[in-house]
Amino acid sequence: AGSVGDKVTIKATVKSIRFIDGDYGTVTAYTLLGEDKRTYAWFASRSALGTECDGKVLTLTGTVKKQELYKDIKSTRLTRVKVQA
After folding, report:
1. How far apart are CA 30 and CA 17, in angstroms?
2. Do the bridges between strand 39-44 and strand 73-84 make them parallel or antiparallel, or are there none, so unpaired?
3. Is the pLDDT assigned to residue 78 strictly greater than 90?
4. Does residue 20 contact residue 29 with C-beta atoms inside 8 Å?
5. Cα(66)–Cα(34) distance, rounded to whole angstroms?
6. What is the mean pLDDT of the chain?
7. Of 23, 31, 43, 61, which is the most exposed, with the fewest CB atoms less than 10 Å away?
8. What is the pLDDT, as a whole number, of residue 31?
């Protein structure tokens, strides 16, 4: 999934969309499952994909912000994500 700072292009399935209210507005949190069986997380300041796209397969390009390991599940956090048409 690349190293921190690398630009990556992935094909992934949207697993969940959550809306998190904070002091600076609402953040949209996307959880995606890549073809490589890795979990990807993307926190956006707007609802870039709408609210009803669970299970939709997308091709995304973004920058790796962080690599995480939580309960033996590898996860990659992406930033500056663009959805390819």
Report:
1. 5
2. parallel
3. yes
4. yes
5. 16
6. 88
7. 23
8. 92
Collapsed DSSP state (helix, strand, coil) of residue 85:
coil
pTM, two decimal places: 0.85
Amino acid identity, position 56? K
- Give the helix, strand, coil percentages of the chain, each rounded to 5: 0, 70, 30
CB atoms inside a 10 Å sphere around CB 49: 19
Between CA 14 and CA 5 the distance in angstroms is 23
CA distance 66 to 32: 15
Written as one letter, the residue type at 59 is T
6 Cβ contact partners less than 8 Å away, ≥ 6 residues apart: 63, 64
Bridge-based pairing of strands 25-34 and 57-70 is unpaired
DSSP 8-state secondary structure symbol assigned to residue 49: T
